[in-house]
UniProtKB/TrEMBL annotation:
The protein, known as: Kinase
Pfam family, one: BcrAD_BadFG
Matches recorded under CDD domains: ASKHA_NBD_eukNAGK-like
InterPro entries in the record: ATPase_BadF, ATPase_NBD, Euk-type_GlcNAc_Kinase
A molecular-function term among this protein's GO annotations: kinase activity
Amino acid sequence: MRALYLAVDGGNSKTDVVLGDDTGTVLSFVRGGTSSPHQIGLAGTRRVLDDLVRAAVAGAGLLPETPIEVVTVYLAGADLPIEVTRLHEAVSSAGWARRSIVDNDCFALLRAGTARPDAVTVVCGAGTNCVGRAADGRTARFLALGPISGDWGGGHDLADHTLRAAARGEDGRGRRTALSASVAAHFALPSVAAVSIALHLGDLPTDRIAELTPLLFQAAARGDEVATTLVARQATEILAQHRVAASRLNLLAAPHALVLGGGVLQAQHPELHNRVVAGARQQAPAVEVTVLDTPPVAGAALLALDALSAAPPAEPRLRAAIANSAPTSPDHSRTSQRDPVLD
């Protein structure tokens, strides 16, 4: 008899849930909004996941009481051991499956990007994070609590720096930069000063600042020195995360995979991508660099298959099934996509 699993990947903007079996067959694939405990609290996380699990079971044509062997839940916001423990308790008490496995969403992304047992992933999307694993079961991770834990970079941070550089370049406090004209034009205003005033007064919502990240990479591609400096700083941060994680696992001089994920890295902007690849090979000559090309929920599902000791053919079958599946929302309508630069 086939063993069923539920796999969850929850980020800051969306949550994917896959229901499948140990042959690699995907029975349903649903998508909802954020399930990060940092954004909606633990009780909110459980409510969101419960709705999506019910939708996945119904979408697979199964009865609510159908036994499911394991649920794997990988969420943004599961950073500290106490957070993982509390989330595990909430998931286990929900009764969605006989067994529950819970951890940070970076581990799902890592498994989606590679089957190699020695691997590191650096995620640069709206924010940034890094985890690693070794064949002997050791892991490496960072606090990833934002500026208070030393984090730098990601789409939102880059957008903030883009606006700051544009303002300083316009009024003379900083170096002149093409970002000044680009930022003003993006908001159809005469100057960056006008943009700043509009943001201050609420005429422009502050969440629109995130739209500026693509302007940074466009300016860097045209050779703007200020933009290039910011992109280089982001590359340096990504390489530092890889270096530290690989060193903690004694992998820096050993063959291992480096998986690049998150919208900023998956866009493969040449000014960033080429620096990261060259730098990674310089600090770890045996590294194999790959860019994630599948939804991270595939990693959560593969980790469920690993827990079920599924036969080897299940992995390629699962990867193909997820690549060919379109997620639905709980009401089975297509969910709109966010800006891939940040997600």
